[in-house]
Amino acid sequence: MATTKAYAPASIGNVSLGFDILGAALAPIDGCLLGDWVSISDAEEFQLSVDGRFADRLPAGTENNIVTRCYNFFQDALAKEGKTKLSISMHLHKALPIGSGLGSSASSIVAAFYALNEHAGSPFDKDSLLLMMGELEGQISGSIHYDNVAPSYLGGMTLMTGQASPVALILPSFDDWYWVACYSGLSVSTAAARSILPQHFDMATCLTFGRQMGVFVDALYRGDKTLAASVMTDVIAEQHRKSLLPHFDEARDFANAQNGLAFGISGSGPTVFAVADDLASAQAIQTWLNDNYIQNEDGFSHVCKIDKAGTRVVSE
Ligand SMILES: Nc1ncnc2c1ncn2[C@@H]1O[C@H](COP(=O)(O)OP(=O)(O)O)[C@@H](O)[C@H]1O
Ligand SMILES: N[C@@H](CCOP(=O)(O)O)C(=O)O
């Protein structure tokens, strides 16, 4: 029986400075897989089975799982192209907590579409698949944004173009940067965390947002780490969302005092991330976050590098 299994890494949406347009995929330095995986097998009838640490937090009912929606969307897309529909069953390994700010729904969506496309013999190109992924992410989080699906799919640090092709660009990143990601164990709904944001921003904020993005991309291409880190601040969402995150300001103060280069909310939180360019600082920040930011037994942290591979087929 033919089986296809795809893994899609966790991701940091926004990376502080790029609300909805910048994201980064994560690879823990201890080699563990931080992301969901989806496998597909030939079958007469569609079924979705689930397992994994956070499977029991998924909504009840196969039809309410985003993976089932991906399956239906993909089958319709095949039919529109005049191609034969798949006769399969799917399995989701749910490793990422829901509402964590680690791109949990995106990880399931990316792994599902990637596995479906591979299993079907790759009928859709990267941009077509990304547009499908963004559409499904939009259905679940309230509006289409690619800053989790694009890095999880393509790998690296990705910038959204707003164009149909290419949907996203992979930016250079610094190989010596460590990204400490700490999930507090609380759940913050992305849709709710989006609904508290203002719909309009003043001129000064818009100018800062644009300047920071431009400077950041230039600094990445020139390898200027100090300048790149100096513009990694969030003028859009952080001031509105940090009240949902107990100990956020103390965590930032500790990271800054520990040679941290940048600190912010991962996606819509409650995960926070800190960047350091030496392992000792990254580990000191991780220890503090473990002791002070984690709120319950669901919480965890990882010291990561950027995952440059993105989603990939993995063996059984
Ligand atoms: N496979 C899945 N993975 C994650 N969330 C799912 C999945 N299937 C359905 N959902 C639902 O989608 C919503 C995702 O919430 P959201 O806050 O966007 O999570 P995240 O920020 O972790 O991606 C939740 O209501 C969750 O129950
Ligand atoms: N740009 C989005 C990112 C949401 O990421 P998630 O991991 O919390 O789903 C936002 O900030 O709303």
UniProtKB/TrEMBL annotation:
Reactions catalysed, as given in the entry: L-homoserine + ATP = O-phospho-L-homoserine + ADP + H(+)
Organism per entry: Agaribacter marinus
Compartments, as annotated in UniProt: Cytoplasm
Residues in GHMP kinase N-terminal domain copies: 65-156
N-terminal signal peptide: none
Record domain GHMP kinase C-terminal: where: 217-293
Keywords tagged on the record: Amino-acid biosynthesis, ATP-binding, Cytoplasm, Kinase, Nucleotide-binding, Threonine biosynthesis, Transferase
Identification of the protein by name: Homoserine kinase
Family annotation (InterPro entries): GHMP_kinase_C_dom (IPR013750), GHMP_kinase_C_sf (IPR036554), GHMP_kinase_N_dom (IPR006204), GHMP_knse_ATP-bd_CS (IPR006203), Homoserine_kinase (IPR000870), Ribosomal_Su5_D2-typ_SF (IPR020568), Ribsml_uS5_D2-typ_fold_subgr (IPR014721)
